Amino acid sequence: MGGLNFNEVNWEEMMDAMLATLQMLAISGVFTIILGLPLGIVLYLWGRSQEPVIRFIYSVLSFLVNILRSVPFIILMVALIPFSKSIVGTSIGVLGTIPALVIGAAPFFARLVETALREVDRGVIEAAQGMGASTSQIVLRVLLPEARPGLLAGVTITLVTLVSYTAMSGMVGGGGLGDLAIRYGYYRYEMEVMLIAVALMIILVQLLQMIGDRLVRHFTRK
Amino acid sequence: MIELRGLTKRYGKGNKTATALSDLNLSIQKGEIFGVIGHSGAGKSTLIRCINLLERPTEGEVWVDGVELTKLGKGRLQEKRRKIGMIFQHFNLLSSATVYDNIAFPLRLAGTPDSAVEEKVKDLLALVGLEGHRNKYPAQLSGGQKQRVGVARALANDPDVLLCDEATSALDPQTTDSILRLLLDINRQFNLTIVLITHEMHVIQRICDRVAVIHGGGIVEQGAVTEVFLKPKHEITQGFIRGEAQNDGQLQAAMRTVPGESSQAVKITFLGEKTYGSTLSRVARETGVNFAILQGTISTIKDVPFGQLIVRFEGSAEAITSTVLELKAQGLDVEVLS
User: Fold this and answer.
1) In a shared domain, residues B256 and B230
2) Which end of chain B has fewer CB atoms < 10 Å from its terminal CB, N or C?
């Protein structure tokens, strides 16, 4: 490597990139949850329905979710450039990457929600039905509280995945640490900047995982 | 109070159907504790779950308190279900909610204001003896305590009917006893109709007024517990009551033994006050027969004392005959065994 010199690193730029990454993470995280949570609940409910029509809709929806999950994110991002432009007016920078991040992560999160809900004891749901609970009461008062640890674990995994997605978005003009690492490290061989950017992302992921694990433990009552 | 008419439940489609219940009829009176006993797979679980339509019967009608549940729409059914409490073998409590919140759950579903919830839950906690546990989570409770929470939760909306789905099957004998006592208390205190299903005869014996024996998706025998318990007609019922003993070889040999004189084995059934009387020894002394007790039970069915003895009389044939007649005249039930 021939000796690293961290004196040349532009810390201000590094801070800006870090903030950009956090911004992307926060905004896309919120929208991923807003879209993915209801989608996951719907997948769960429809997946258990006995009605042939609803079962058919479920299999179509499930198929679409699987397609979105199997397209590599980098390709999804490129494919969504026109879509991003039409929604947020640009396809680059922090704002430009948000639509792609959300569309990439929401189906993934929805599946995690569906799985977490399936873990809820069938008997508890039946007990609530026996007490005259409506479907919406079962979702809000039984499924979501009972699945809370699983849902929090799902949020954690999704946020961690989003960190790596934000980094990848640097390849096609997104901002943040990934962009910095690629511009300096990959194109200009400035190893130091890349190392610091990667280190910051590692710290970010560790923090997210730690907070997530704590919350899961805090809400686990079994 | 509860009427099941022509209840049939089939699972599956086409030629792969399994029939859980076939054309079952049952009528349960207000204020009684009605037991349904059967082996696993007999259809008893399906039966009790049909009463609040957790299972929808394929055919037949379910009537509770004069309303045909099978005809109700979703909203009306949900409303009606609030008046049908249910407790479960595995308790089915919300693991993420405290004891207090679990009991408050059905009240909040019904939109009860907070102050009324607080008051009601307090009463229920006292009723089931869990005042000191209101802020604990189910995982911190013993099985018996969890079932008490289940009972309190089931009673929250002042139901007309309480359904017990194998409610004591996961509990040890002592805890079972305390839960059964609680159910009996509640039944008497609120004149609450209780339907319970079980595979354990002693649960029926302990608290039920009437019992139905279910086998192969249909009811093979039903009646007052004293009647069914002491005079089981169907072989399934007999199996539940005898369990181990009656067919054992030692007893059979002892019944046949003829030591010198003639002898006769009989089964004597005592019911009510006569159970604790000295009828048997008085009559034997008068007729001059001797007797050996080969097998016997003296216990109670709910509050009614009963005894059932297998006795071998020894003496002249005439003396034995007059003993049997005299015992019958004294109001005991005597069955001559071959």
Assistant:
1) no
2) C
Terminal CA-CA length for chain A: 51
Distance from CA of B170 to the nearest CA of A (A): 15
Scan for tokens 């999804």, then name that residue.
Answer: A76
Strand, helix or coil for residue B5: strand
Q: State whether residue A127 sits within 8 Å of chain B by CB.
A: yes
Q: Which tens digit of pLDDT belongs to each residue from A143-170?
A: 999 999 999 999 999 999 999 999 888 8
The phi and psi torsions of B35 (rounded to 5 degrees) equal -105, 145
Nearest CA in chain B to A149: B96
Cα–Cα dist B24/B8, whole Å: 7
Phi, psi of A32 (to 5 degrees): -60, -40
In terms of CA atoms, which chain B residue is nearest residue A148? B96
Structural domain span for residue A46: 17-219
Counting every residue written for chain A, the total comes to 222
Instruction: Kindly state whether residues B256 and B309 are assigned to the same domain.
Output: yes
Contact indicator for B55, B71 with CB cutoff of 8 Å: no
Query: Is residue A3 situated within a structural domain?
Result: no
Total of domains in chain B:
2
ipTM of the complex: 0.84
Domain boundary among B198, B225, B242: B242
The first and second tokens of residue B78, run together, are 């949900």
Q: Per the structure block, which two tokens stand in for A182? A: 């690629």
Identify the CATH number of the domain in which residue A121 sits. Answer: 1.10.3720.10
Residues in chain B within 8 Å Cβ distance of A131: 81-82, 86, 105-106, 109, 153, 157
Percentages helix, strand, coil for chain A, rounded to the nearest 5? 85, 0, 15
CB atoms inside a 10 Å sphere around CB B114: 10
Tokens of A22: 């956090």
The token duo for B157 is 């909306």
Strands B290-301 and B304-314, by their bridges, are: antiparallel
B228 and B206 part of one domain = yes
Asked if residue A6 is part of any domain, the answer here is: no
pLDDT one-digit tens code per residue, B25-67: 999 999 999 999 998 888 899 999 999 999 999 999 999 999 9
- Which of B74, B82, B139 lies at the smallest CB-CB distance from A131? B82
